[in-house]
Amino acid sequence: MFNLAQWLIQGIIEGYETGEFSRPAVVTMSANYIARGILTEADAAAIDAACPPVVEQQEEGQG
Q: Where do the domains of the chain lie?
């Protein structure tokens, strides 16, 4: 049977991994789906864990 929540979770994570979605977009989408009752806070936590913030490393001598 089709599971909408799992399909959305997978799509959000894959979108982040491919660069289609930025981290702020992932957070906004997750919050909207929680507000609509489609995702739970546990689902959002799983998405958050799978989409870590990008930390850019500074070159030596800068900073």
A: 21-51
Predicted confidence (pLDDT) per residue in 4-18, tens digit: 999 999 999 999 999
CB atoms within 10 A of CB 27: 15
| Contact predicate 5/47, CB 8 Å | no
Crossing angle of helices 41-50 and 4-18, rounded to 10° = 20
What are the C-alpha distances in Å from 56 to residues 7, 49, 53, 59? 30, 18, 10, 10
d(CA 9, CA 47): 7
Residue written as token pair 């689902």: 43
